[in-house]
Design goal:
Blueprint lengths: L1 H90 L4 H8 L3 H11 L11
Helix pairs in contact: 1-2, 1-3, 2-3
Length: about 130
């Protein structure tokens, strides 16, 4: 009978130990497991967002390169245009000042266009 009391006392001591020490530890472990799961989920979200951002950055870089090329082509196309228009007006006898103001040419450029392509000036009488 004394063994039964001893076993009962040992069982009661284990139960008290469980309630005092182990149960709070189990709760803490469960809480840490939930926190770990939340951190893992956050890490996965950050990874997905990073991959998406890298892909967006690549796409934007490609678009920027295409736009840069397109702008360069447009600028190249447009560079000759003021000269073509200035040549046309110079052939019609337009003066240098008008070529400068209309087409943004320098005075030297306008004089050269007028010299090379200039027709009779509108303020000159024909035959001179």
């Amino acid at each position: 009978m004394q063994i039964a009391w001893f076993m009962g006392g040992a069982l009661a001591a284990l139960l008290i130990y469980e309630l005092i020490a182990v149960l709070p530890l189990r709760r803490r472990v469960a809480q840490l497991a939930r926190s770990h799961a939340a951190i893992e989920q956050g890490h996965e979200t950050i990874t997905r967002l990073t991959i998406r951002q890298v892909n967006n950055e690549r796409r934007y870089a490609q678009q920027f390169t295409r736009l840069e090329d397109r702008l360069g082509r447009i600028e190249l196309r447009g560079e000759g245009r003021p000269y073509e228009q200035a040549i046309t007006l110079a052939a019609q006898g337009e003066d240098v000042g008008r070529l400068v103001s209309c087409f943004g040419l320098t005075a030297g450029e306008a004089s050269l266009v007028s010299l090379l392509h200039g027709g009779p000036r509108s303020d000159e009488p024909p035959g001179q």
